[in-house]
Amino acid sequence: MYLINGKEVKKDDFNISVEDLVVWRGDGIFEAIRIHGGFLYALDKHMERFKNSAKKMYFENIDFIQIEKDLIEVASNFDTGYMRVIIGRGDSIDDFNIYIFHQEQVSFPESYSLESQKAHWMSGGDFHINEIHNIAAKTTSYAMNMNQTRLAEKNGFTDALLINREGVVLEGPSFSIGWINNGEVFVPDLDLGILDSVTRRCLIEIGEGGAFSISEKRISIDELYKVDTVFILSTAKHAIFVNKIDEVQYSKDPLVSVIKDSFKIEIEKEKTEKL
After folding, report:
1. Which among 40, 73, 103 is the end of a domain?
2. Which of the listed residues 55, 83, 103 is the one where a domain comes to its end?
3. What is the pTM of this model?
């Protein structure tokens, strides 16, 4: 099922003009939400971030209530996969189009190997999310992110791990990072300029609810080499074990399984409450 500006179209007609700014300038925003038996987990958080991205990227007069309704309606037809919504700038600053569609479930490896790389956005750290306008907007300008993934793949790794100029760990090109040490779970803090990951937010809430101890913390790549376990987080990858970063191998802490199980419990709990 494919929607453009709320109207259903056939797949062959689900197109974006090459003259649109979203194509040749990457001037757009998006969200990806995982489907669990027709239900969209953490939809409220995704919509909150989507609205924030729109504000930061100067998209105005957006009917977010209708977008949410359309996402729920389309998702109800599928057991698995992802709902994607894109707001793309048209041929002028005041023109935009809204694209909503279902994407099939993507398979991922059981574990990841990561190559540390300097982030292409020259982060020095200590950004406040609302201080710098475009920080934390989830935009369609992902070319450089994907290039860092390709470089890592070319060098024999699953993906890249981005660090700033001081060597502080940030995130992946399309995922957040977390680590476990001495029985505690940690994630980087948002003032580093990283994306406000919905899955990261859910993880913090689950931990604060008593499932495990969790804290926000900054860590250098050299310090990360010495922790017990590393894992990645995203809408598609709730918690995938990282077996290697650069030349350092890791063992899998049992807490990774606890995190995975905790997400399953929260998804079913929210599904029961909302449906």
Report:
1. 103
2. 103
3. 0.92
